[in-house]
């Protein structure tokens, strides 16, 4: 039995949220690249344990991760969601409205690094940051996240195993090289305590010192 299937059978009791998001993605002809069920469950577990109040996500897509974050933070939590494409932000917004989290989220449309620079200049800070966007820019997202993270904040990055392609050192594709470089950076960053969890498609979790 594949490890993620085993984890989902043991720990995931409700798949209805993802099913609703998948249907909305299909209706809008959007890619099915939401965070895996097992990885989403782990994300929620960390959030419930950490109890953050100000979260940032890089990549909204259909609103699945945003819903998980808001649900886990509770009604006092606030989410800033960064999305490059207006049409994706609209779908994510619809999802969070339907799921009852409309008043907890604010969307920023445009290049995430530009928005993060604006947030930094406004002295905005966050105690949870979730990265799930353009894999080519993961290292830059990490640098920008550290600048706006509070001490003790958690930073998550999804898809860091690339379906185990990062294990193949002979794969010299640009995406593989970029992700291997990101994993090395998050593992050795002097300002972070980090680990890579082989759940879903791999989730790197770092705590800001």
Automatic annotation (TrEMBL):
Keywords: Methyltransferase, S-adenosyl-L-methionine, Transferase. Pfam families: Methyltransf_3. Transmembrane segments: none annotated. PROSITE patterns: SAM_OMT_I. GO terms for molecular function: O-methyltransferase activity; S-adenosylmethionine-dependent methyltransferase activity. One of its GO terms (biological process) is methylation. InterPro entries: Cation-dep_OMT, SAM-dependent_MTases_sf, SAM_O-MeTrfase. The keyword S-adenosyl-L-methionine applies. It comes from the Bacteria. PANTHER family: CAFFEOYL-COA O-METHYLTRANSFERASE 3-RELATED, O-METHYLTRANSFERASE-RELATED. This is Putative O-methyltransferase YrrM. It comes from Aureibacillus halotolerans.
